[in-house]
Amino acid sequence: MKVALVIFTRNERKNSELIYSKIPRNLVDAIYVIDGNSNDGTSEFWKSKRIKVFGQKYKGVGGAYESAFRSTKEDALIFFHPDGNMDPKDINKFVKLLKKGHEFIVASRMIKRAYNEEDDQILKPRKWFNQGLAIIANIIWGRNGNKCTDTTQGYRAFTRNAWKKLKINIPNPVAPDYEQIIRALKYNVKIADFPTKEGKRIHGETTMPSFKTGRENLKVLWNELIS
Ligand SMILES: Nc1nc2c(ncn2[C@@H]2O[C@H](COP(=O)(O)OP(=O)(O)OP(=O)(O)O)[C@@H](O)[C@H]2O)c(=O)[nH]1
Ligand SMILES: [Mg+2]
């Protein structure tokens, strides 16, 4: 089984430079970058490391997933953000689980031994919202013991076959992660997870303000309910 690491970037030059040496290149068969029109030299940085950079046809992070599966050939893809949120040491865990036969794996920030960026706050609005989305999806679509624990985590991996089973043609641009989780529950694609510790963004600003992502996640839920 050939496994590729796919990095999503939009103006992540400084973070890319810092994270680059921490990526275990030897664990995967290929590395690709899907870039959403960065204007800070992000693409140039990755190209200088001899890593292929692809653009995207559809908008947002959702469009990046579509481009990833269309532009590459490997049997499984692991998705990674280079902004400091994701621990590159987890790449090894994804590779092992894929090789064991798991088809959809999420690095969960919501289970025992995991850490979420809000865990040292008393009020955890983003975490609670995420957990609410998980409860709703599990009640409506969970069956045969299939369930999700972290609906909005982008640190995940799929086999190409599992991706096809989700039947997502044009992904939601802002909330593709929840969309994939719901489709997996709907179509019986087994979700595996392991605990991860979320880090803080190093440089730059989020492209995902909470209010906008919250609204888009609810839109995804509604669309999946009525379709
Ligand atoms: N290819 C592509 N990547 C994107 C796009 N928008 C954001 N990204 C990248 O996707 C990842 C997730 O976006 P973030 O802005 O970090 O969202 P977040 O993790 O919810 O927010 P933070 O807490 O600030 O890290 C980052 O690596 C971004 O650079 C896009 O339109 N296309
Ligand atoms: Mg981030």
UniProtKB/TrEMBL annotation:
> Source organism's superkingdom?
Bacteria
| InterPro entries assigned | Glyco_trans_2-like, Nucleotide-diphossugar_trans
Q: Which CDD domains match?
A: DPM_DPG-synthase_like
Provide a GO biological process annotation: protein N-linked glycosylation
For this protein, the record's Pfam families field holds: Glycos_transf_2 (PF00535)
Q: What are the residue boundaries of the Glycosyltransferase 2-like domain, all occurrences included?
A: 27-156
The entry's protein name is: Glycosyltransferase 2-like domain-containing protein
